[in-house]
Amino acid sequence: MQTIKTAAIVVLMLTVLYGGYVSLTTPPEPLPDEIEEILVIEDAGSGAFGTDEAVATGLQLDEPPAGVLSPPQDALVAESAGGLAASPAVTPHRPSAAATAPAPTFSPPGTFGSSFADLPPKLEPSVEHEAAVASNITKLPAVEPGASSVTPGPVDSYASTPGEFRMPDPSDAASTFDPSRGSAFNSDGTGFTMTDESPGTATGSLGGKPEPRENRGLINAFATADAMFAKGQLKEALATLSVFYGMPDLSDDQRRQLLSRLDPLAREVIYSRRHLLEPPHRVTASEDLVEIAIENDVPPQLLANINGVEDPVMVLPGTELKMVRGPFRAEVDLTSQQLTLFLGDLYAGRFEIAVGNDPAPTPGTYTVQEKQTSHVFYDRSGVPIPAGSPDNPYGKMWLDLGGQISIHGSPNTVQPTKNGCISVAGDYADDVYGILSQGSSVTIRR
Known about the structure:
GO terms for molecular function: peptidoglycan L,D-transpeptidase activity; transferase activity. This is L,D-transpeptidase catalytic domain. The longest helix is centred in the first third of the chain and has 24 residues, at about 1-25. The chain is an alpha+beta fold and about 450 residues long. The strands form five sheets. A nine-stranded mixed β-sheet has the order 10-17-7-8-9-16-15-14-11. Strands 1-2 form a two-stranded antiparallel ribbon. Strands 3-4 form a two-stranded antiparallel ribbon. The protein has helices at about 1-25, 35, 125-135, 170-175, 215-230, 235-240, 250-270, 290-295, 300-305, 425-435; strands spanning about 40, 45-50, 205, 210, 280, 320, 330-335, 340-345, 345-355, 365, 370, 375-380, 385, 400, 405-410, 420-425, 440-445. About 25% of the residues lie in helices and about 15% in strands.
């Protein structure tokens, strides 16, 4: 069985090899007579088109030689049957002078089997043909006889910008200025001058005495804060006016009106027992007032004073406390000799101070590093003056700001002292001590 399979495979391979040999050795069939006429066979055996022929796939001579008929270009059509294109043909080879060209036959466009050879010859255009073609061409509108022509000029013919700029003459402007709509320029050429002052606080001259101009922002703030106060919105009214506290160039009357509103608002919003800053805090059985104060960055003495608590440790569970969330900060103005307290952006009161030179305070930003109710004072010669002595300028309060700079009390209960550094009257020392905590920021400026 295996021998029969092997013999069959050998016979099949021999058959394939014989067929290939026959295909390679059999000469090609001769070309038809009509194809040989259009080809020129060179001696080397390669076929080429003559120099007077053109391929029918788009190439055409500009001027056809005598005796050659060029097909019209608009007669190229596609076969409609089956979507096949018409078979391309080659332009007939130019015959000799003795030969006569046979009359070509024509098949209607779209007829199956038509070719370029079947298209009608291109004849000389007649007058009727030119008229028919001209009737199908869209013409541009005729140009009006009176229309002006545009001739571009050279690049350097465009107008150029003047190279120098001249300032307007104030005298010329004054001569054409309407006095009913403003003020004319002064004879010396000066007029209104801008200043670096705020429009609401710029000063003018009235009777030789500088007078502050109307501050519309402050006037509007007064009206807004008064309306808020009437509605019981005391915290909002305090916030509205607090931003104007440090505004420079306020007149004495404007500052008086501002402070007449700020002081009672701060006293009611911050230091009364009304819950105007935070919701009330209900004390639990596991906490006391000291822990609550430390968590809110305020001294325990402050919460005790506000809430009327005599013993901060013995606060009954369930007690509602007025809450103040700190810390407070202070601004010391050495020129006006005032210490102003702030709770965030809210004005929180002010105290008169006295500025000493032992040591003299230096402008800058400091932090309260230590607090004491009594502190030994050392004079310039290094002699210590014990706390509680009438000669000790620190009184009953000493806040260390670092660098030997401090805020302290005074041995005088109603007057600050010029001895020491920054002094507050003795009656107010307890308040400052109970408001500023260790870590509070203090800014000193002139």
